[in-house]
Amino acid sequence: MVTADGDLAGDPAAHPVARRENRFRWVKWVLGAILLALLVGEGVYLWPRLHESWRTLTEIHWGWVLLCVFAQAVSMSGFGRVQKQLLYAGGVDVSQGKSVSVVYGATAMSLTLPAGQVFSTAFTYRQTRRWGASPIVASWQLVFSGVVAAAGLALLGIAGAALVGQGIGVKLIATLVLLGAVLVAGSYLARHPGTLEAMLRKVLALVNRLRKKPADHGIPKLAEIRAQLESVDLGKRDGALVGVWALVHRFADVACLGAACYAVGADPKLSGLLIAFAAGKAVGSIPFAPGGIVYVDATLIYGLTAGAGLPAAQAVAAAFVYRFVSFILVAIVGWIVFAFLFRTKQADDEEYEAEFKQRRI
């Protein structure tokens, strides 16, 4: 049977989605070829040093490895505290254990799945909604925790550059001020939702005028947002705790990288360590491959060699230890946590999934 478009009925090619998938199938092949080229390139670059790196790994100091694992656990716990504190400001009291378990599960998804950041965000949103957070509070927590984490990363990078002695102390102070401003602004808007509503009304009026919509189009939604934001009370104490735990999250991760360096007998410069860490995390935020495999490793190796003063063999070994702990081990623990605590589908999963997709549009 032939359709009006001339396609055979039941033929997968007749479906618009299938046609789009076929049309962009070449993108997967191109990305795969690029990834293969990166792997080959990194292999060629590292091959002369692999023997020395392997010898370095056979002489590893296991005490430092244990400290590396401990520091990574503290880092994950720190981010769990950030999430817990933000939710508490929104009227959701969740235990640290539950918060950290979601952090591990979400991180495992982000590190190992294609488009993992989307899956991990949706997963966190579902869990926070299930804990009793309103849609606005759940979304606000995701956005604000990301902003604070990014500010902390920028702070580390600028601190590393300042330690090099390039006279950019002003930038370091400016970043600290920016981090404080983010926390103060979030606290103020949470305690004064009317101010935010007034700002959004002006923006909405402009958008409605440009889109030739009625002047009051979307006003009820703003009122709903205000009503829900009134349940968020990010006071000075909560804001300060969020900032402290965000720094614990980042500094513990840096300590993990430092311990990995000492585990292979290296003595890294603190400035180069901070810069290498910040660069690796920044590059890792690009969703090109799960866990930033290859390009994050290359960035860390280059940063440790050029900035922290490590020989190439030690840089490769240190990057391997750090990535084994922060990538492979965290992913394994995260999936184990997910399998035991979150594998069973809940009746409200589809509802929250649809709600999350709607809020992303």
UniProtKB/TrEMBL annotation:
Membrane-spanning residues where? 29-48, 60-80, 101-123, 143-165, 172-190, 320-342
Where in or outside the cell it occurs: the entry states:
Cell membrane
- Check the record and name the Pfam families matching this protein: LPG_synthase_TM
Q: What is its main location?
A: membrane
Name a single GO cellular component: plasma membrane
Highest taxon of the lineage: Bacteria
Protein name from the UniProt record: UPF0104 family protein
**Keyword terms:** Cell membrane, Membrane, Transmembrane, Transmembrane helix
Which organism is the protein's source?
Nocardia coubleae
- Classify the protein's membrane topology as the record does: Multi-pass membrane protein
InterPro entries, per the entry: L-PG_synthase/AglD
